[in-house]
Amino acid sequence: MSWAKELELATRIAREAGQVTLRWFQAGPAVETKADGSPVTIADREAERLLRDRIAAAYPDDGILGEEWGEETGTSGRRWILDPIDGTKSFIHGVPLYGVMVALEADGEAVVGALHFPPLGDTVAAAKGAGCTWNGKLARVSDVKRLESSLVLTSGDARLPPPLPHSPTSRLDITGLEKRVNGLARLAGKAGIVRTWGDCYGYALVATGRAEAMLDPSLSAWDAAAVRPIIEEAGGVFTDWSGTPSHLGGHAVATNRALAAEVRALLSSDPDTPDAP
Hints:
By secondary structure, the chain is an alpha+beta fold. It has helices at 4-22, 42-58, 88-92, 176-190, 199-207, 221-224, 227-233, 260-268, and strands spanning 31-33, 39-41, 63-66, 70-72, 78-86, 99-106, 109-117, 122-127, 132-134, 137-138, 151-154, 193-195, 213-219, 237-239, 250-255. It is built from 8 helices and 15 strands.
């Protein structure tokens, strides 16, 4: 099945919403704190409103899930998943590495994804079976095969708990997020370079061959849905930290194919056993 029309819409409205965000970028918009503790601005809300209006006009029977305005159920079996500003903290601080994310889910599968980075003018987009493009040209993950030569990215791990001691008793304390942070520490110890060029920008760097891995210990569906088709169509691997392909959030890791097995082994290995080869 062709998703060409949906991909064209996703790409176009991501760019339009990006123009909305630029009205407030580096202009000091008021910042509110949502119930989950994350920040939001008028730019987030206005950009998502534009996305919703454009989708409703084109596909009125489709559902929509967005970070700022919640979910509207549809009748078509399809759902658009939106993040009007992924990287609101970067946006607030005038850092140009935030993006607009638009995804389409059909029959429970993410089939279209578009990422647009308004201050940079960059767009990375993909549809199932149609490949991935970066500003209209074919995009592919890198072919780096050695972890020691890789660039590994994550979204701001400084606020996360530090790795716990690798002792026989530490297993009792390592659960959930802390366990994933330990996995990240093991991976970081073997990677060539580690940087926190995170949020959706990190995934775009993997899809375009400029980085080898991007990891999020915690994220939502609107942070992940657009990324999965982009990474996969660029020849990479996108899963949660247990290695299960998913676009519904929780946690995520994207890699090139050459390093996929090694990265996931390091993330999931027991702290009391030797590291994966």
